[in-house]
Design a protein that fits this description.
- The chain is α/β, with parallel strands linked by helices and 466 residues long.
- The chain folds into two domains: 233 residues, Carbamate kinase; 151 residues, VC0802-like, CATH 3.30.2130.10.
- Helices cover 41% and strands 22% of the residues.
- Strands 5-7-2-1-10-12-13-11 form an eight-stranded mixed beta sheet, sandwiched between helices.
- Helix 1 links the parallel strand 1 and strand 2.
- The two termini are 32 Å apart.
- The structure holds aspartic acid and magnesium ion.
- The site of aspartic acid has 11 residues, from loops.
Amino acid sequence: MRVVMKFGGTSVGSADAIRQVARIVAESRREHEVVVVVSAMNAPDLRTTDTLIAAARAAAEGDGEATALAAPRLLDLHMQVAAELVSAEEREALAPELRGMLDYMSDLSRSIAVLGELTPRALDLFSGLGERLNARLIAAALRSAGVPARAVDATGLIITDERYGAASPLMAETRERSRERLLPLLAEGVVPVVTGFIGATRAGVPTTLGRGGSDYSCAILGAALDADEVWFWKEVDGVLTTNPKVVPEARTLPRLTYSEMAELAYYGANVLHPKTVLPLVQQRIPIRIRNTFNPDHPGTLISAEESAGAAKAVTAIKDVSLITVGGPGMLGVAGVAARIFGAVARAGANILLISQASSEQSVCLAVPRAEAAAAVAELRRELAGEFSAHDVEHIDVQDPVVIVALVGSGMRGTPGIAGRLFGAMGAAGINVIAIAQGSTENNISLVVAAEEGDRAVRVIHQSFGL
Ligand code: ASP
Ligand code: MG
């Protein structure tokens, strides 16, 4: 099987963690063709990407020495790991290479301080350095552990547009380049260790894919290489049935569909972002979430295939405001909904849930609490005419409330789920303020008062036997 696997910042945050990574790669390589994608090191007391970005910003403010001051700390961080995991001979080549990259950045910093300007393009050079340092370190650690490996900068693989700081891949070119560069390495039995997070424009100017972008890099390469599976190594066993801080009995889900994963991400579960893994979903490449620190656990497999169980997981979004627009004149008036949503969009508020009964006497929408005031002000402006004509009589805000969502694509066409859900709420004496279910039927959302949120999650988790 061809497997592209990504290790996040904490999974590569210390010598112990990287030792574990080397073990996993050595083990996987016995059975599979492996491509490794790495984030920058996130050590408990030194977050590489944050440090580099802060130094670049300081340079723009006139402090041209900030990078030169951070550079020895970053070099130490990497070379201390090397002291434990990389052979003396390899270290002799690694140290000057990493130092050279940091020196270049220190020089660039001084120029930025003189110019007093940090362009997004220059910032991408700084923020992407952590991945370039780390890929070299990890490739050396793998070689020292007897695994043939080579560090590869994704600037030569992932070709992007010119949106510095949040670039998108040009898939056709990326596919061609990645295959051209990586397939020969795989054929030789060498493990490519590719930098996450970065790419380059057609002209070769380095870009980044946005903060946290290493997941995206991994998905792009998985798709470009037609991987059989793509594995994301994280610090958890997989996707859980709910937040374990609320429900200690939360379990790891063995399987999920892509759409269930997307619903869970939307409703606040800390899983892969749907946009991030789109290249994999489009090609129907199965995804696994696994635990770097518990590699014997099979993790969660995410694919197009439906699996047993109607309801899979329950999540909650906190700090939400429920806005209700109501009045007698909204009945049958075309375009009111469009104007309401338009007004909320202009206010920059993100609509999390919508509900309108067919009597059309009111429209109710949930937005993050921090965005509610602006949304209401814009709604009042938009509907001023309707207010004076008494077609709209009230715009009410209720907060804080919590949206609790029950997710599972097997709920589609399964009667009785809503009955069970509301029965459980009733039996527990929890008042449901609003309800929404999309016609895809893969989630049912309910709004409850903030103080009932955790209890609602626990009751649902228990009554559905999750
Ligand atoms: N190092 C980058 C960041 O901190 C990318 C990543 O970790 O995914 O945003
Ligand atoms: Mg990350």
